[in-house]
Amino acid sequence: MQFGSPYDDSGYYGYWSETTVFGIQPGRRTAKPDGKTNGYISFTVESVPETFDLLDSMGASFPFVGAFTNVSGVDDKEPGYTQVYTVDSEGNGLFFCDYPGN
After folding, report:
1. Backbone angles phi and psi of 51, in degrees to 5
2. What is the pLDDT along the chain (102 residues), one digit of tens a residue?
3. Rounded (5°) CA angle 1-11-101
4. pLDDT tens digit string along 69-87?
5. From the centroid of its chain, how far is CA 2?
6. How far, in Å, CA of 33 to CA of 12, rounded?
7. Is this structure's pTM higher than 0.85?
8. Could you give the C-alpha distances from 11 to 31, 48, 72, in angstroms and in order?
9. 3-state helix, strand, coil in the chain (%, to 5)
């Protein structure tokens, strides 16, 4: 991964480059999908629909968390990017995002 330049914004810490975003935000008590997670990680991918298909074929779940997403599964309601939200085996949130407008 090419992490790029570090940044922090409203408690969201990470790295941003022309091709990669890697970010971590400490979880908020009201945003926990299952009560276990204490944060989430965001990754930039080439295609959210392809990533969703891969995760779905592996049995991943796609919880709706109103603080994070507009729908369960592929969420393209926000302008400028598409995302999918899932959780790992420990309950930590994982975002996979693409930025087709960039």
Report:
1. -65, -45
2. 455 666 656 666 666 666 656 666 665 544 455 555 556 777 888 899 999 999 999 999 998 887 778 899 999 887 788 999 998 877 778 889 888 765
3. 55
4. 889 999 988 778 899 999 8
5. 18
6. 18
7. no
8. 14, 25, 24
9. 15, 35, 50
